[in-house]
Design brief:
The complex is a heterodimer of chains A (about 250) and B (about 325). Chain A has about 250 residues and is of the alpha/beta class. Chain A has helices at about 35-50, 70-80, 95-105, 130-135, 190-195, 235-245, and strands at about 1-5, 10, 20, 25, 35, 60-65, 85-90, 115, 140-150, 155-160, 165-170, 175, 200-205, 215-220, 230. Chain A has one domain (about 1-220): Rossmann fold (3-Layer(aba) Sandwich). Helices cover about 25% and strands about 30% of the residues of chain A. In chain A, the strands form 3 sheets. In chain A, strands 11-10-9-12-8-1-6-7-13 form a 9-stranded mixed beta sheet, with helices on both faces. A two-stranded antiparallel sheet of chain A has the order 2-5. In chain A, strand 9 (about 140-150) and strand 10 form a beta hairpin. In chain A, helix 3 crosses helix 4. Chain B is an alpha/beta fold and about 325 residues long. Chain B folds into 2 domains: about 1-180, Rossmann fold; about 205-320, TPP-binding domain (Rossmann fold). Chain B has helices at about 15-30, 45-55, 75-85, 100-110, 220-230, 235-240, 270-275, 295, 305-320; strands at about 1-5, 35-40, 60-65, 90-95, 115-120, 125, 130-135, 140-145, 150-155, 170-175, 185-190, 205-210, 230-235, 260-265, 280-285, 300-305. In chain B, the strands form 3 sheets. Chain B has a 7-stranded parallel beta sheet with strand order 5-9-4-1-2-3-10, with helices on both faces. In chain B, strands 13-12-14-15-16 form a 5-stranded parallel beta sheet. In chain B, helix 5 (about 220-230) runs parallel beside helix 9 (about 305-320). Chain B is elongated, with a radius of gyration of 21 Å. The chains are: A alpha/beta (about 250), B alpha/beta (about 325). Strand 14 (about 215-220) of chain A pairs antiparallel with strand 8 (about 140-145) of chain B.
Chain lengths: ~250, ~325
């Protein structure tokens, strides 16, 4: 069985974002780039599945759409334990073009399980995984919090509004994963970092794909009004403010 | 031409989220001069379907089919796409919950329609079609132009007020068969939380962090929630420690919510936490550290020990309720 994990390269969560070019572009100066947190959890789960040799996972591959400058993030995924990588050599652009590039890159690779994080922390679109599945014409399961393999059959837990469903779906499929899929992201050990240097990254040139959407400008959130304080000794007064001033009760 | 809004049901019932979707779709339709068609898939009684007209749907269409046993991303996509094509839908509206996240991207590819997800406001303009949406987990917003003929929007829950605009409506049962080859998802078991208010549905959410010091201290927090009809939530360290269940984790990688009122009790307000709660209308922060970042996000604050403050709030709410 072969697993693919799609990874996105995003600014570290603590980054203070700024925009340049008339608020049309992210200011990348000083940004620390990381694997998108949800993708990192997906990769961790894929590697846990491979660690259990009874699952007979041959390989865990990562795929990424991005220019050569995102290779450090790919190397990090290899250092964590992925066996090899595919990079489509183009600026990532919007979700539709990313998913289309990924689909072309992996269509003939016969992956059994494809894992994508449910969201990327930059554009918060929650769309690439579902789009990829539709391009590939295979099933998808969205909101996956557990993937287990028992006797060659994949068992999935899907989070729904107010509960969860335990289900099965035939391979190949795309699992769009969320919190719960792995406890903590796996951290690269020194040996992994050394080994990652020589692991193969297959670089593919992009297809010509027209985008469907375009960001025409960014805005910063409007500053909130300053906080109004209530003395701890008179904490009960807060309830009065919420009732009479904020009118939330 | 139409605006098509897709509605899931929970055991045959709609909820506030459903009516937010129809209200939003009605306003978008008004901007375009089109009608709103509400699409329900699954078994829903006529009386329940009629409620959709209260919020502006002029046509309600329903697909009920014995073959539909489980929610399958592909099968639902193909049914919704067929209705969208039959009704000449120019805009599709879905929720930004896991169901919408399953369907919107597949529909985007199927219909070659650009998606903007997690919108909380009406489009800024319809020609060109520009929407305003959260990016970088709430640290910024983007104006996104959708360039395709058909557009797909997913609406963030609790972000759009209900607008009653009763319409005379027509009702139609559609005989659309899901392609049996696409029904690949087999649900073996369902576990539902019963009796609990869902964090994503709640108007008021009361959330505890490490400042609660021990899982044994949650009593007054839960009591406050019960008095206010609120849901209980927690920060990531609390769910990681196993003090509270993972379902309660609010934050970037947990639940992203937008209640009317959010209490952050003993939560310092790390970037990851704020990413999950910054769309709340009012935030109350209670923390011993006066420099905690949560106070920058909050409108009301108490610098003090959560365990001492909570009983006072419980008393004050009891007093308010007794009046």
């Amino acid at each position: 069985m072969k697993i693919l994990v799609c990874i996105s390269n995003v600014p570290d969560t603590t980054t203070k974002v700024k925009f340049v070019d008339d608020s049309k572009k992210l200011d990348v100066n000083g940004i620390q780039w990381v694997i998108n947190p949800w993708d990192e959890l997906a990769l961790t789960r894929a590697l846990e599945l491979k660690d259990d040799t009874s699952n007979a996972i041959q390989s865990v591959t990562v795929a990424h759409v991005g220019p050569v400058t995102s290779e450090p993030t790919i190397r990090k995924a290899l250092a964590i334990g992925a066996d090899d990588a595919i990079r489509v050599n183009t600026e990532p652009g919007e979700a539709f073009t990313i998913a289309a590039q990924l689909a072309e890159a992996v269509r003939n690779e016969n992956f059994d399980i494809i894992m994508c994080g449910i969201e990327s922390s930059d554009h918060n679109g929650s769309t690439v995984g579902g789009m990829l599945a539709e391009f590939l014409g295979c099933p998808s399961v969205t909101g996956v919090s557990s993937v287990k393999i028992e006797g060659g059959q994949t068992h999935i837990t899907r989070e729904i509004d107010g509960g969860k469903e335990m289900l099965t779906v035939p391979s190949p499929f795309v699992a769009i994963v969320q919190k719960g899929i792995a406890k903590e992201p796996r951290i690269a050990a020194m040996r992994g970092i050394m080994m990652a240097r020589t692991k193969p990254i297959k670089v593919l040139e992009p297809q010509s794909i027209e985008s469907l959407t375009e960001v025409i400008g960014y805005e910063m959130p409007k500053p909130r009004a300053a906080c109004k304080y209530v003395e701890a000794d008179n904490a009960g007064q807060l309830i009065g403010l919420l009732q009479n001033e904020a009118k939330v009760f | 031409m139409s605006v098509l809004v897709f509605l899931e049901n929970w055991d045959g019932k709609f909820k506030k989220l459903s009516f937010e979707l129809v209200s939003y779709a009605s306003k978008v339709a008004e901007m375009l001069g089109d009608q709103v068609i509400a699409l329900s898939i699954g078994k829903v009684e006529a009386a329940e379907l009629e409620k959709l007209a209260v919020y502006g749907a002029t046509k309600v269409v329903s697909i009920e089919n014995e073959m539909i046993k489980a929610f399958d991303d592909q099968a639902y996509t193909s049914m919704i796409a067929e209705v969208a094509q039959q009704t000449g839908a120019k805009v599709l509206v879905l929720s930004n919950n896991n169901t919408g996240k399953a369907l919107a991207p597949r529909l985007s590819v199927r219909l070659k329609a650009g998606v903007a997800s997690g919108v909380s406001k009406l489009p800024l303009s319809v020609n060109p079609f520009v929407v305003y949406k959260k990016v970088y987990s709430g640290k910024a917003f983007a104006n996104v132009a959708i360039k395709t003929d058909v557009k797909i929007l997913t609406l963030a829950q609790n972000s759009f007020d209900l607008v009653e605009a009763p319409q005379t409506f027509t009702f139609e049962k559609l005989n659309i068969q899901p392609d049996g080859n696409l029904m690949k998802t087999q649900v073996k078991e369902v576990q539902k939380q019963s009796g609990k208010i869902l964090i994503t549905d709640a108007d008021i959410v009361i959330s505890g962090g490490r400042g609660m010091k021990s899982p044994d201290n949650w009593g007054p927090l839960v009591e406050l929630a019960e008095l206010l009809g609120a849901a209980t939530a927690c920060s990531r360290p609390v769910s990681d420690e196993g003090w509270r269940s993972h379902d309660e984790h609010t934050g970037q990688t947990g639940k992203i919510i937008a209640p009317n009122l959010y209490f952050a009790i003993g939560i310092s307000g790390a970037t990851q936490h704020l990413a999950g709660i910054s769309s709340s209308k009012f935030i109350v922060a209670i923390n011993t550290d006066k420099d905690a970042p949560i106070f920058e996000a909050a409108q009301y604050g108490i610098v003090g020990d959560a365990l001492k403050v909570l009983p006072k709030l419980v008393e004050a709410v009891k007093e308010m309720k007794s009046k």
